[in-house]
Structure formats: C-alpha cells, structure tokens
Amino acid sequence: MEEKGKKEEEKKKKKDKKKEEENYPNSWLITTIYKTFKWILIESALFKLLQDLLAFASPQLLKLMVSFIQDKSRYAWEGYLYAVLLLAVALLQSLFLQQYFQRCFVLGMKVRTAIMAAVYKKALVVSNDTRKESTVGETVNLMSADAQRFNEVTNFIHLLWSCPLQIILAIVFLWLELGPSVLAGLAVMVLMVPINGLLATKARNIQVKIMKFKDKRLKIMNEVLNGIKVRILKLYAWEPSFQAQVESIRGQELNVMKNFAYLSSVSTFIFTCAPALVSLATFAVFVGVSSENVLTAEKAFTSISLFNILRFPLAMLPMLIAAIVQTTVSKRRLEKFLGGEDLDSGIVQHDSSFSTFIIRIHSCSSAQCVSLDIKPGRLVAVVGAVGSGKSSLMSALLGEMHSTKGFINIQGSLAFVPQQAWIQNATLRDNILFGSPHEERRFQEVIQACALGPDLELLAGGDLTEIGEKVRKLHHLARAAYSQADIYLLDDPLSAVDSHVGKHLFDKVIGPSGLLKDKTRILVTHGVSFLPFVDEIVVLQDGVVTEIGSYNSLRASRGAFSEFLDTYAKEQSNQTQSESGNHILSHCSNDIHCTSYCTLLTEPKTVTAYVLMCDYYLHRGVRLRKNSSIRKPENADESKKGQRLIEKETMETGQVKFSVFLQYLRAMGWGYAVTVFLLYFTQNVAFIGQNLWLSDWTNDAVEYYNRTYPSWKRDTRVGVFGALGVVQGLFVFLGTLSLANASVAASRILHSRLLNNILRVPMLFFDTTPIGRVVNRFAKVGCIIDFCASIPQSFRSWVLCLLGVLGTLFVICLATPFFTIVIVPLALVYYFVQRFYVATSRQLRRLDSVSRSPIYSHFSETVSGLSVIRAYGHQERFLKHNEITIDENLKSVYPWIVSNRWLAIRLEFLGNLVVFFAALFAVISRDSLDSGLVGLSISYALNVTQTLNWLVRMTSELETNIVAVERVSEYSEIENEAQWVNNTRPPEKWPEEGRLQFKNYKVRYRPGLDLVLHGITCDIGSTEKIGIVGRTGAGKSSLTNCLFRIIEAAEGHILIDDIDISTIGLHDLRNRLTIIPQDPVLFSGTLRMNLDPFDKFSDEDIWRVLELSHLKDYVAGLQEGLQHEVAEGGENLSVGQRQLLCLARALLRKSRILILDEATAAVDLETDNLIQNTIRKEFSHCTVLTIAHRLHSIMDSSRVMVLDAGKIVEIDSPSNLLKKQGHFYAMAKDAGITIEDITVL
C-alpha cells in the first residue's frame, strides 16, 4: 500500500513551492511567509528604527537637566526648554512606536490566518497515509496552537535586529560617559548570554515533552468524549478507567511543567540580578580605576537611564530566542503536515472514450488485482464476508487507495454513502442539501423516499431542526439521493435501519423502481433479500473479485456465491408460499427464479436476510403523509425551545467576577499567594533602597570636591550598592519559585475538577454541545492555566508592575514634593482610560475565544468527513465556509489590536506628562534640591511610561486569562447525573434472577419536550427472552436508555429483582447490566484495554471470550496478540470485527441481564449467525432483551413486546400474537412469517 522513497510533495501556501527530499520538504515556510508580507515588514522596520534612535535623546536631555540644576547661575528658561524637549521627544517616540506595533500585530494576525487557511486547504487534499500519521486532535492542534505561535513571533520579529542596535548605541553613549570601565558592565552582560542560551535550550526540550503529553491527553479526551457521545462509556460504566488514564498523563505533564517552572525561576533570578550587577560592575570599576574618577550625578543618572534602555533588549533577546525556538518546533510540525503527500488525483481518470462502461477498474494493490467494468444505469451489488475488501473497493473508486499499477476510469459525478454516518452540526435540511440549491419538490420527494417523513413530524422544528454530531444514517442516504449525481457508491446504507425501512429504502430509492433507477449504483450489502433485484453481483474474497454475474447465473454456476446462499437458504419445497411471496411475484419478470426467491424468503433461516419485506407501516404511513406533505408547525415563527439542539456557546459579559479570582487563589493556596506578594514587595523595597543609595553616593562628588576621596567610603558605597542588588535577585527568585509551585497545584486542581465533572454530566449535555467545544476547554484552557502559559506569568508581571509604578511615584514625590499635586488628576485620567479599555478588551477577548471554537469544530468535522466531502467534490464549498468562520473570528481580533493601540497612545501620553511634570517641578524648585535626587526622579519618570502601559496591559491580560478559569469553572459546575455510587448498595450478587418490572414508566428526553414513553407497565420473568419491535421512533431505544438511567424517569419505576433502580448508584446499576450496542465503538489502546479497561480479568478469561466470539484465530495471528494497538475509533479493524469485539465485552461481563440493540446490523450473514448462536448458547441463563430490526431474530423469543408511539400495544408469545392478528401479525405477514414457521422452530 505504501510506497516510501522519494516522494514528490507539493504545498500551496499563497505561493506554490515544490521541493523534492527524502522525507518531506523543509525550511520553505518562513521564506514563503516573508515573500508574501515583505512590504508590511519593511514599513514597520522603518518606524522601529526612528523610535530606537529617539530613545537615546532622553538620557542626553537628562544629562543637560542635571548639570543645569547643579549650576545655580544659569537662566531658568534653559530648564523649561529641557522640560519641554523631554516631553516632545517622548511624544514622538510614542507615536512611532505605536505605528510600528499596529503594523506588526496586524501582520501577526495575517500570518496566523494564512497558516490556518493553508492547513485547512491541505487537509482537504491530504492522502490517506499522511492523514493516518496524525490523529484528528493533532491536526486541530496545528491549526490552534502552532498557528498561534507564529502569530506571536511575528509580532516581535523586528527585535531580532532592533535589540542588537539598541545595545550597540547604548554602549557607545556609556563609553562617552564612563570610558573603558563600561567594558566591565558589558562583560557581565556577555556572560549572561550563554547562561540564558543554556536555559533556553533546556526549556525547549521540556516544551517538546509538554507538547507530546498534551497531544496524548487531548487524543484520549477526544475519544472519551466521543465514547460518551455514543453513550458507550456511560453504558459500560467505564468512566473511572478513562479518568485514571487521563489523570496519569496529566500527572506526567504537570511534573514536566514543574521542571519548566523551576527553570524559569532561575532565569528570572538571573534577569533580575543582571541590571544591578551590570551597574555595580561598571561603577565599581569606574571609581576603583583611579582616585580621579568621581561619580557625579550627571554621570550616574545618565548611565542609569542608559542601562534602563539596555535592560529591554537584553531581556527581550533570550525571550525572543526561546519563542523562536518554540516556533521552530511548530514550523517543523507544519512543514511536515503541509509537505505531506497529497491524494494522487490521477488514480481515478475521467476518460470519456470508454463510452460503454461508466466505471472501469483494472488496478492492483499489494498482492491482489481487481478488474471490473460497469455499464451506465446498472445496479451492482458487492457482497463478501467481513474483511473481504468491500469498503476498500469503495475507497479505491473514490481514489483514496494507493494504486500500485493499473487504472480506474469513472465518468460522471459521484455520490457516496459511507458505512459510518457522517453528519454535520447543522440543520437537517442543510445536511440533506449539502450545498445544493433547495428545490422544495425534489426535497419532499427525497424525504418521502428516504422514510424521513415520520421523523420530521416528531421534530419540533421540522427540517430546520439542528441535528447533533451523531445522528441516524437516513439523512445521509437522503443527502446522496438529493445530490443528483451520476454514480452512487453505497457502502451498506441499509444495515442500520429497521427491516421495513430497509425495504422501503430499497424500493423507493435504490432498487429497480426507486428514485435512482436510471443512475449507476454500486451497493455493498449483506442483505441476501435484495440480490435477486440487482442487475449484477460482484463477489469479493480476500480482496479479489471471484465471480461476477446476475443472481441467476451465479446460482447456476454453483460457485462460492451459490454455496454462500445455500448455507442460508436451503430450499425446502414443502414450504407453503405465503401471500408475501405472491405479492413479490408481481415484481418479477422471471417466474422460475422468483419462486426460488420466495422460498428463500419464507424459509425461516433466510429471513435473517437483512431487510424483510414489511409494508404494513409504510402503507399506513404513506397514506397519512400523502395528505400532509410534512405539515409545517402552525406556529413556525415561534421556534420552540426544543428545536435548537446545539445551543449557542454561552459567553459571560461584564466584569470578571471577583469570585473567579478568589477561586484561582484558593486553588493556589492562600499561604502561597501571600508569600509571593510579600517576597515581591521586599524585592521592590530593595530596588528603591539601592537607587536612593546611589543618589546619596553622587552627592559625595559635591562634598569631596577637590579633596581626595577616602577609599573606605568608596568600598562601603560599592559594597552596599552590590548587596542590595543581590538581595533583589534573591527575593524575586524565591517569589517566582513559590508562584511556580502554587500555579502547578492550581492547575492540577482545576483540571481534575473539570475532568471529574465532565465525566459525570448527564447525556443531555453531550447531545446539545459539540465535542469541539468541550475539547477546546481542555486544550486552550489547560494551556492558559498551566504554568508555562499565561495566568501565573501575567499574575507575576502584574504584581511587579504595580509595585514598580508605586515605587516610581514614591521616589518622584520624595525628590520633588510638589509632584503630589499632579498625582491625583493623573491618577483619575489613568483610572478612566484603564476602565474603558479593560472592559472593551475583555469582551473582545471573549468574543475571540467564542468565535474560535467554530473554526476548530468545523475543521475536525471536515477531517472526519473527508471521504464524503471529496466524493461529492465539495472541497471548494468547505474552503469557503472555513474562510467565513475565520473571518468571523478576525472581526474580534482586529478591533482588539486597535484597542491596544488606542490605550497605548493615551497611557504613554500620561507617562510623558509624568516626565514633564517631574522635570518642570525640578526646575521650579531647583534652589532647594540636590542634583542627585533630581537625576533619580527624572530617570525613574522616564521609565514609568513603559511600566504604566504594562500595568494596564497586565490587568487586562490577567482578567482575560482569568476568563479561562471562569470557563473551566462553568463546565465544572454543570449539574451532574445521579451519583455513581451512593449509600444504598445492592447485594454483591444482584441481580441473581434477572427479573424486570416496569411500573407505569414515563420518560421525556429534556424538560419541556413531550413524553417518549407513555406509562410502560410490564413484568419480565427471570431468564425470559424478550423481543422488542416497533417502527423507528416507537421508543425502542428509549427503553434501553431508561434501563441504564441515561434518561431519568418522569414518573413510575423500574424494578430489577425487586430493587428500584432509581435508588442505587449509576455504576452499581450499569456494571450489572450488559449491552451490545448498535455502533461498535473502540478506543485507541490495546485490544486488552478495549475488552477489560479495569484489568479485572485474567488473560485466560480474555482468550476464552475471544474464542467464543470467533476472534481467537484473528488475535492469535497478530504480532502483539492482546497488546495489539487499536487505532483511534478502531479504524484498523473492520466493522464486523469491531462488532465481534463488542460481543466479547459482553461475554466477559457475565451479567444476568443482557440488552441487544440489534447488534448484527453491520455484519454479513455468516458473522450474524455466529453472533446469534453464541448469544443463544452463552446467555441461556440470562434475561435477554433484543431490540429487533428484523423479525426473524426474535421469532424464538419467549415473548414479543410491540411498541408504538411510546406505548406497549401488544406483548405475548410470537405464536399467540400471530393468532391475535394484530400489529405483530401484520408485520410478520409482510415478512412472510407464518405460524407454521414458528412450529418448525
């Protein structure tokens, strides 16, 4: 199947780029992005350059200012001029900086969008092999996490050249101030770089590990949620096992994260110490080199403000490098995916010269060769045992398989109905139209033909009802029928429906007189009963076509097919032909072959055939519908509450509740939170102390003017200055360390709370919530709360910024007491700007996160329905839809970027005013000030702009990220279903007899909807075998849901062995019942885990049940045996094998009560027989309830319960019911079953 070696890869990423390489093309992504966006890049670079140059004007002005204050003889206007110049320079700087930011952020947004669009586009054309390399979860991650990484790096990409430039300029100016002693400070900085580099590589390795665990965790989460969605996890009470799996991965993830947190505290320590150490080294060397060098105020504070400029590029470089490193990981993942092999569109040719055949296949894959020619307008059935390659043939026709040699030629358009239904989260109408224009007449025809009419009448919104992610298959056949294609590929669409619906679908849609009678149809089927009506039958065995021909010729040829039929249809000539037979004769042109067909029908064993002829409901239903043509609900405009199944995602508005902050602090632990704050506070005190000490030091220059500077004093100055620097570093280190521990603890608590609750939420929640939305909570939210991500970081930055701003104001007031006058008005302006901004920003962020979910759920929907989308050729439409969803999201991203610029301009203006006033007051009261303090206050003020800006940004960032806690807590507080285990525990061996009693049992799916079961009352004795029949929607499945308490009673009780099931815990109940469900669901993991997730049973037990379920030979033949890895969703096993595994699960549980939800739907006749016999033999001592779609499988039941519209219409033994000539008799008559048959049985 796979041909490795040199693959030619191709990727459309705005530009098509081709490269050939051994595995996949790499290092093309960055250059492509550059080529696409280079003009924005150049523009923004220009603004950044201007801003950088202006940044160095302020220290020079500061120097002039200080010398002006020292020299009392100079004119006052000079001082005012400097103050105004300081303001002007700062304003220009702000404007340039914001222009630059605006361009960069918009660029980041564009890059993210381009990558998302490219990933989506690629997903539509990716080959099946490449698709199997990564799970749906991982692919969605490319779109969410990796595209986001690129966005973040692009925002700051210019710092790569701007940082070095700033560093060089700063050093030049420092040299002019302090001469060669600058080199000492520089040396310290240079030493920091390799240390930071080391930490960055370490961090990157940890990052990769975290990503691995995250992928793994999300993959399991995705499966768990899907498992709950189809009810399996709940029916089997397997939640604890999967909860343990997720928790253990999460534990590993958090341990790795803890290491990451410790690492970052070390780098924070180094980062905090750096400026102090640099200035210490420089000043110490400066005063130590010669006694001539005296530290004056202008020298000290000009240098300090230059060092402050230096801090930013030095801090940013390692962060930038780390971010780029993370992005390279993403780059690799993206290039691997985007460069993966495309589906070879040349496999299927569309050559019109083969006019006689609409489909020609001559192709070989691995060892088998298939040759097949199909003429237009024929109905071709494909039959064969489980695993004989029927679905592979379908894939080949769709062009989804590797063709090693040969060709496939198809003329005309395709429609495809896959075996496993794929339904979009949209209205029923949209699912059927699937992008075609809506024509009411054709739509109604299709709905009637596909037997959807009665279903629609039950739905509140008619065809505008939203249907969830998993719904019945009929809509899917309707989609195909509506599409008016030339060729229909039908992969077993009749298996999952009731027999009469199956017959109806065959008659009205697929068969010789159906809706599609003039089209070419290829039908994969297990149903023997349809075969006489098809034009041609293709028999597959082990991937090879063994026979082709009409029904008669194949019977006559006595080949494999004829044996296959004989096994199921030994013709007993003594069978009387029932009316049903004569009824069929009228369909037939060839009497002889039809007689054999009728015999085949009336013979008891054949009636196992899928779809029994059962017109009773249809006649009744059709008559009713002819008049109504699907009544529109009278009050169609008032759409009912029940109609929207998928509720819109809720979104909190207004301020984030304070309780959410408290909740997070509580999760962290109060002790930790207080400690962190105190440690940071002490650090800030040390910082101010250090600077006051410096300003005192500069006054020595005045004091010892023209005198020798005593060495002891010099040593004291240097020593204290240095000590205070180290103390800062130490406190920050301790603070960050405690924060790391606290946030990992919080993360653990919040995640397990979320997981714990989601597993206990009632089914209703999953019916109304797309899985993507829940996974999104686990993914995004997990990310924000975790230490490596936002909340702890923004918490730390917020505390540091707040303290920084307060410190600055304190120092300025200390230097120029006048300044206190302006503080109040400035603070007011600041407050209003901040309130206004934070509210807007917060809401925009919420809109952003709500509008992101649909992008991902649409994407995962697309990936899972890929073969359908491709078959219909609807890639363009889905691309368009994806673009629309992304644009919706951008509508909230762009305003957010602009709002940030709005804020920054206003805040920086405020900061610039602070500088101006500090300078102004210094000039006014220059007679009473010493130059040291003035230098200190202005150099502080120059720094405050940045800090003010950050403080608001952090406040908003913190609020935004806290929204994550809000969203986790929203899902952690949904009402739970009943307790898993409560105080009333049933006896150990319960149920010993397996008696069931229903007492006036009523139930509805959701509050506000109508009842689905109206007062069911009946007693079922121990070891009775009960068949449950009724048309679709009669309440058969609801009955099983009630037994397992998936839906709770509206009134009435169910007793099992005299214990009311509503009084005991759900797991006590569900563990004692066994169900073999309709859809066989498997989880990724070992085969063993799929059978026995709790490791309760020994290997012998497991091999025994595998033998009973006829899988022993298959499993024994696998390399890993029981440890064989099952793919996501069990995709590496055929549907039949999955169904047998479900049987094995049931055999392991050995419960006294077994519920069979017509489990044999997707299985061929042989497997069906195996399953039926195993159940008869192994469960003879159990009470068995069979929900039957085919009457034959329940003819040997002790009693049959006939349901209609949620009531029991008849319940008695099959023979008595036939004598009664009621509902059951009519169904049996249509199925050609007579009383004689039962006596034979």
From TrEMBL:
It catalyses: leukotriene C4(in) + ATP + H2O = leukotriene C4(out) + ADP + phosphate + H(+); 17beta-estradiol 17-O-(beta-D-glucuronate)(in) + ATP + H2O = 17beta-estradiol 17-O-(beta-D-glucuronate)(out) + ADP + phosphate + H(+); ATP + H2O + xenobioticSide 1 = ADP + phosphate + xenobioticSide 2. Its main location: membrane. Signal peptide: none annotated. Keywords: ATP-binding, Cell membrane, Lipid transport, Membrane, Nucleotide-binding, Repeat, Translocase, Transmembrane, Transmembrane helix, Transport. GO terms for cellular component: apical plasma membrane. It is a multi-pass membrane protein. Residues 44-326, 674-960 form the ABC transmembrane type-1 domain. One of its GO terms (biological process) is lipid transport. It is found in: Cell membrane. One of its GO terms (molecular function) is ABC-type xenobiotic transporter activity. The chain crosses the membrane at residues 79-97, 156-176, 182-201, 260-289, 309-329, 667-688, 718-740, 800-833, 903-924. Residues 348-567, 996-1230 form the ABC transporter domain. Pfam families: ABC_membrane, ABC_tran. Belongs to the ABC transporter superfamily. ABCC family. Conjugate transporter (TC 3.A.1.208) subfamily. This is ATP-binding cassette, sub-family C (CFTR/MRP), member 2.
